[in-house]
Amino acid sequence: MKWTHPRTKEERFVPNEAIAACGDSGTVYLFNCNAGLAGGVTDDMGEPVHDHHPYRVFRENGQEFLPGNGYGRCGVIHEAPTDGIFVRGYMDNMYTAADEHIAVIIWGGWTGNEVHCTTNLDMSTWETTRS
């Protein structure tokens, strides 16, 4: 047997199928905007409140999230980017004397007054999908 120099054969990679990029890029939460009432709200005396945005939303530190704006759930499941900003906070009905202090996670409000809140505080249980 005679020894020869090793030979390297190079081949060009030519993909024959489309492939997806690795990682979580494009993954979104299915964010359920379920916190609070949507209309049909009554005050402490049982009188109907005609404003369909009866809640004030606060950050955990007590700072109002969008001062001067009321909040009412839209009841829609939104596609929220998993790398988006989610803020822990609470909300209270502005038409009652009681301090409801309903714990929520807030998403939105970054480009205007559109804010969404969920009472599902365990983000690890939120359903995800690809956008």
Q: How would you explain this protein's 3D organization?
A:
A four-stranded antiparallel β-sheet has the order 4-6-7-8, with no helix packed on it. Strands 5-1-9 form a three-stranded antiparallel β-sheet, with no helix packed on it. The protein has one domain (27-130). It is rod-shaped. The chain has strands at 27-32, 41-42, 48-49, 55-59, 77-81, 86-93, 102-108, 115-118, 128-130. Helices cover 0% and strands 32% of the residues. With 131 residues, it is mostly beta strands.
Present the secondary structure layout.
Blueprint lengths: L26 E6 L8 E2 L5 E2 L5 E5 L17 E5 L4 E8 L8 E7 L6 E4 L9 E3 L1
Antiparallel strand pairs: 1-5, 1-9, 2-3, 4-6, 6-7, 7-8
Mean pLDDT comes to 80
Low-confidence stretches: 18-22
Q: Approximately how much beta-strand content do the residues carry?
A: 25-35%
Give the quaternary arrangement of the chains.
single chain
Alpha-carbon Rg, integer: 25 Å
Query: How many alpha or pi helices?
Result: 0
Number of domains: 1
